Amino acid sequence: MVEICADINTLDKIILHLKKHNSSKIFLLQGDLASGKTTLVQAYTKSIYPNELVTSPTFNLIHQYKDIYHYDFYQRPLEELLNLGLLEWFENNGVHFVEWGDKKLEILLKENGYNVCIIELIKQDNHRIYRIF
Fold first, then answer.
1. pTM above 0.90, yes or no
2. Residue 3 pairs with which residues in a beta bridge?
C-alpha cells in the first residue's frame, strides 16, 4: 500500500504513480461523496488528452475518452451490471476507472483474472489522502 497526500494542485503525484501501475488496467475508486473520485479521473485524462471534457458518468453509467473508461456504479446492484455486460466492458483495451467499486466487484474481477488496483480517497480539509493498494 502507498499513501499519498495531495490537493487539487498536486494531483500530478497521484497520476504519475497510477501510470507506473501499468499491470493494472482497472482502478476501483472508493470514497465518500465529494471525496474527489471524478476529479482524479479528470486529472488523469487531462494528462493524456488535454482537450477532453471529462464529466461524471453518474446518470450514464459510463463515459469513454478514447482508451480511458470512466464508470459510476453508485447504488447499482452488481447483478444488474453483469446483465448489462460488465465483464465484457473491461475487455476493452485501455484504462478503466470505476467509481464506487466495492469489495464484491473487486473479488469478481480478480476471480475472472483481471488486475485490479484499489484507490481509497479520504477527505481532509483542502487535500485528500490517497491509499493505493
1. yes
2. 131
